[in-house]
Amino acid sequence: AIGVTQIKKLNSIISRRCKVAEAIKERLNKESEIVSMGWQVPETESVYWFMRIHVKTDMLKVDKISFVKALKAEGISASASYRHIPSESSWWRNSGPWEFSKEEYNKDSQSPNAISATDSHFNISLNENYGDKEVEDIVNVLKKVEQVLKK
Predict the structure, then answer these.
(1) Predicted TM-score of the model (pTM)
(2) Average of pLDDT values for 21-35?
(3) How many whole angstroms from its chain centre is CA 70?
(4) How far apart are CA 13 and CA 4, in angstroms?
(5) 48 Ramachandran zone, left/alpha/beta (phi>0; psi -120 to 50)
(6) Three-state SS for 33?
(7) How much is the average pLDDT of 120-129?
(8) CA–CA separation, 91 vs 76, rounded Å?
(9) Which residues are registered as beta bridge partners of 150?
(10) For residue 97, is the peptide bond before it cis, meaning its omega torsion is within 30 degrees of 0?
(11) Mean pLDDT lowest for which of 36-45, 78-87, 126-135?
(12) Cβ distance 71 to 145 under 8 Å?
């Protein structure tokens, strides 16, 4: 019963999350030199269960994990990693049949783009009930931490 009721609200929830994410994205594009929205496949839409943020760690005095810890200390709900790459999972490696041999599969670089993306991004939690104040707070904290920790 709860699931059926929530499904009826899903389009509204997604729409409100997109509005929040787009507002953050727009502000970051104008105001940040170190953090930006993560790349998204052209002509696709995200539902923003969380926001994937790209961070230019080469412009920071600290690594990504320390940057995210600073965000958390300022009250932002963030996660340094969301590394759930299927090719790294045992269920993937031990399942099959695959169209390639185990020798081909076990190469160290089977997912270099996915690994690079997870290494250079972090996630911020969003809520569909966020408004202008929460968008302002998130952007201001990102900018504050960026300014304190940039080289």
Answers:
(1) 0.83
(2) 96
(3) 16
(4) 14
(5) left
(6) coil
(7) 95
(8) 33
(9) 60
(10) yes
(11) 78-87
(12) yes
Q: Determine the 3-state secondary structure of 39 from DSSP.
A: coil
Only one residue has tokens 């899903």, namely: 10
For residue 87, give the DSSP letter: G
Whether residue 112 is predicted with pLDDT greater than 50 in this model: the reply is: yes
C-alpha pair distances (Å), 58 with each of 93, 104, 109, 120? 33, 33, 23, 10
Tens of pLDDT along 57-89? 999 999 999 999 999 999 999 999 988 887 777
The whole-angstrom separation of Cα 94 and Cα 10 is 35
Q: Are 149 and 60 in contact (CB under 8 A)?
A: yes
Q: For the chain, give me the number of helices (H) and strands (E)? A: 6, 4
Q: Residue 117 to residues 52, 81, 133: CA-CA distances in angstroms? A: 10, 10, 30
Residue located via tokens 């299927």: 86
In DSSP terms, 109 is beta-bridged to: none
Write out the two tokens for 146: 């960026």
